[in-house]
Amino acid sequence: MTLFLQLAFLLSIILLSAKMAGYLSIRMGQPSVLGELLVGIILGPSIINVLNLPFIEHELAETVAKLGELGVLLLMFLAGLELHLGEMRKNLRVAAFAGLMGVFWPVLLGWGAGLLFGLNQPASIFLGLTLGATSVSISAQTLIELKALRTRVGLSLLGAAVFDDILIILLLSVFLALQGGGGSASDVLLIVVRMILFLVTSVAFGLWILPWVIRRFAKLPISQGLLTVSLVIMLTYGIAAEYFGGMAAITGAFLAGLMLARTHEKERIETGMHALAYGLFVPIFFVNIGLSIDLREFQLQGLFFTVVIILVAVIGKWVGSGWGARLGGLSRHESIQLGAGMISRGEVGLIVASVGMKDNLVTAEEFSAIVVMVLVTTLITPPILRALFSPKEDTIMKKADNVEQPVELSTPNEDAKEPEAS
After folding, report:
1. What's phi and psi for 409, nearest 5 deg?
2. What CATH number was assigned to the domain covering residues 69-403?
3. 287, containing H or E segment
4. Backbone dihedral region of 346: left (phi > 0), alpha (psi from -120 to 50 degrees) or beta?
5. 349 near 119, Cβ under 8 Å?
């Protein structure tokens, strides 16, 4: 069998399995992403190990992973495309508080947990940084399915994830620079300047140049020219975010979508991108998360350490981001919803952990614990969000919030502003 036919076989299995598992998940009252993640584990080295069949070349695993990376870029691009810069600006305060607290508490608790289990100082700090990462792509997909992405919680969640991404990458870059002996004040300042320059340049380009580019391409008599230029813009923003801004490529893709959401051709772009993303690349991304995890490598002697890491990861992010959202002005129920949406670590947690493995900051046992933590947090986020956004839960929690209102009567101005922000 030729290499191309092997790839065609793998893609057929992955896509068909993803859609069937997604359908079954929806029938059971859960988001389709949960089924796609679980079927990835079944197809992966934990059970079937489809990428390691005798007639499959090993290098195809990397090809599937790269296709999955395109999937997460498209997913975050579509999430940005559904929003508007003005909507994001209204929720900037909540996003900032939730993002900052969502990094501070997991990093602090993870650092403490590492020291408690006898890890040295660098390894403990790195463990905290791993727990501080967030993969909002899982939550974004779940909120899209629940039609809750454009609510105040959804908008704040995406904004908080951007803050989270910027802060954790900044902290990780500074930490690695210090570990490598190059952590001078000028190095740290350079990292911050790169991030600010990228954000300012990308937003300015998106506000003043992109609309003109899109209008020109929309008028050209070429097949799918608008879709093609939108893909090029998304990829360019992703490349620029990682190469020039020192951020994750998904942040650039999200910004590209946010910029194109302002154009008159938004609906045409969204229609084409949606078909391309969900017909091919996004299912590969979710299944590939499971394909990259081997539960058989997990050592039982590290079970207690793993359980503690999972608890710290969930509690630190949920309480930290939720508390930050509450400080930013969301109601108690909305804060709980936002905190839950920040739990998933997904591919971001795996990327950060792999950096530590490469630089010998974590042992194989600690890496296995982090991988299991990533898996658990990724799997539990969709059903938790589904439960918190159910009409019954909304009614119960809103009644509970109303009970608290008499306590806050001394600050009527804040109550008056509450509906205006929604």
Report:
1. -65, -15
2. 1.20.1530.20
3. helix 282-291
4. left
5. no
CA dihedral 26, 27, 29, 34 (to 10 degrees): -40
Amino acid at 368: S
pLDDT of residue 371: 78
Q: In the structure encoding, which two tokens stand for residue 174, read together?
A: 């500074």
C-alpha to C-alpha distances, 330 to 42, 67, 93, 97, nearest whole angstrom: 39, 37, 10, 11
* pLDDT beyond 50 at 421: no
| Domain layout of the chain by residue ranges | 69-403
Is the pLDDT at 411 greater than 70, yes or no? no
Whether residue 14 contacts residue 42, with contact meaning beta carbons closer than 8 Å, is answered with: no
For residue 309, give the nearest of 370, 365, 354 by alpha carbon: 370
Q: How far apart are CA 260 and CA 211, in angstroms?
A: 7
The single-letter code of the amino acid at 394 is: D
Residues in the chain: 422
Amino acid at 359: D
Neighbours of 219 (CB within 10 A): 9
**Rounded distance between C-alpha atoms, residue 177 and residue 167, angstroms:** 15
The three-class DSSP label of residue 243 is helix
| Predicted confidence (pLDDT) per residue in 22-64, tens digit | 999 889 877 788 889 899 999 999 899 999 999 999 999 999 9
